Amino acid sequence: MINLKAQYLRIKPEIDEAISSVLNSTQFIKGPIVKEFEQNLANYLDVNHVISCANGTDALQIALMSLNLSPGDEVIVPSFTYVATAEVIALLGLEPVMVDVDVETFNVIPENILEAITSKTKVIIPVHLFGQSCEMKKIMTIANEHELYVIEDNAQAIGSDYQNSDGSINKTGTLGHIGCTSFFPSKNLGCYGDGGALFSNDEILSKKIRMIANHGQNKKYHHEIVGCNSRLDSIQAAVLNVKLKYLDEYNSVRFNRAEYYTSQLRNLDYCITPKLNKFSSHVFHQYTMQIKDGKRNNLQKYLSDFDIPSAIYYPIPLYKQNAYKTSDTTIHHKNTEYLCGSVLSLPIDSEITYEQQDKIIEHLKAYR
Questions:
Q1: Half-sphere exposure of 155 (CA within 13 A, CB side)
Q2: Whole-structure pTM value
Q3: What is the spatial distance between Cα 362 and Cα 348, in angstroms, rounded to a whole number?
Q4: Residue from 348, 241, 360, 225 nearest 302 by CA
Q5: Whole-Å CA distances, 317 to 209, 218, 244, 325
Q6: Which domain-ending residue is among 195, 224, 244?
Q7: What CA–CA distance (Å, rounded) separates 107 from 88?
Q8: What is the pLDDT of residues 209-219, one digit of tens each?
């Protein structure tokens, strides 16, 4: 689905030098490059604090751990997303409350969030799915009115711009109380292993988050709170520090390639191309179409026969996963279930060429 080799070769001298510098320093854990990357990412996002960690799932878990929640507290999440969003909630003894998403943008519907709020609700986790923002103004208004925390799952939308009603711009991940991201290799900003980070403008929360990620200590061998061991190693930080300089370029190429797909595919009668919302840019972590009339699986096999990769993100609603099934068998989210049966993502990354896209488009146009 993505060409990590080509991306590496294009910036190979810088990457090799950065990794070699860490190897020569032998400061593999908490080396100075980690702090440097955190500051550079904070500057890019225009946020006060960035705390790196071991992976994106840890970032979500640490964010929840920082909020003084109690077992049984409810956390609202979309039912159409990757499992990690609900997984960390369950791991902490909290209750994931799943709500339906918008069928056109794939993102959570604010009105559904509002309807799901109870006296036990403490947190909302909007997921900026596939590369564009949720309606954060409405979500933050709901959160403020009900005194709820907002944790943005920004793993798929880093670099996306959210436009406020006054025309000002914020990066996604910086609009809620805490933002989280993953640096999994396939992400728009990906490392060469696992990695993640949390963002916040809240001084007190950020200090606590940093402590939690480091065994609950802010001074060696003085453990003030229960924490965990979640660190971004120096080699991954060095890789990310190089790639951060190219993030806007990577995202721009992804957007242009997505526009090319759409220009060529929008008139096909069996698919619906992605919709762009009006309040944020789209960084196209995935180019995800909807395939009509139950043809999705057949189309995927057809593409595979011509060695064209594709992927289904995501085939099963969270509330139908065995790990998260409840006794309430009446749960039926129309949009989520439709999307799980119809979405198909095409290859897109910063290295894909128009010639490669033309091959894919040719076969899609020939499909009957």
A1: 24
A2: 0.96
A3: 16
A4: 360
A5: 30, 40, 33, 10
A6: 244
A7: 20
A8: 999 999 999 89
Return the residue matching tokens 């309040």: 279
Token output for 219: 């001074």
Whether residues 240 and 255 share a domain: the answer is no
Please state the domain count of the chain. 2
115: left (phi over 0), alpha (psi -120 to 50) or beta: alpha
The CA distance from 86 to 127, in Å, is 11
Strand runs labelled E in the chain: 49-53, 74-78, 95-99, 121-124, 149-153, 161-163, 169-171, 178-182, 196-200, 217-219, 222-223, 271-272, 287-291, 343-346
* Residue 356, number of CB atoms within 10 A of its CB: 14
Q: Which tens digit of pLDDT belongs to each residue from 129-179? A: 999 999 999 999 999 999 999 999 999 999 999 999 888 999 999 999 999
In this structure, the answer to whether residues 20 and 153 fall within a common structural domain is: yes
CATH number of the domain bearing residue 347: 3.90.1150.10
Structure confidence at residue 328 as a pLDDT band (50, 70, 90): low
Report how far apart, in Å, the C-alpha atoms of 193 and of each of 20, 186, 219, 232, 297 are.
16, 10, 28, 10, 31
Q: Kindly list the distances between the CA atom of residue 89 and the CA atoms of 12, 41, 183, 194, in Å, as whole numbers in the listed order.
A: 39, 27, 21, 21
User: Which range marks the domain in which residue 299 is found?
Assistant: 247-366
State whether 153 and 37 are in the same domain. Answer: yes
Q: Which two tokens stand for residue 230?
A: 């979640």
pLDDT tens track for 29-79: 989 999 999 999 999 999 999 999 999 999 999 999 999 999 999 999 999
CATH number at residue 19: 3.40.640.10
Q: Pick the closest to residue 124 from 169, 60, 183 (CA basis).
A: 60
Rounded Cα distance, 203 and 187, in Å: 28
Residue 227, classed as helix, strand or coil, is: coil
For 157-216, the three-class secondary structure string (H helix, E strand, C coil) is: CCCCEEECCCCCEEECCCCCCEEEEECCCCCCCCCCCCCEEEEECCHHHHHHHHHHHECC
Alpha-carbon separation of residue 94 from 33, 120, 128 (angstroms): 35, 10, 22
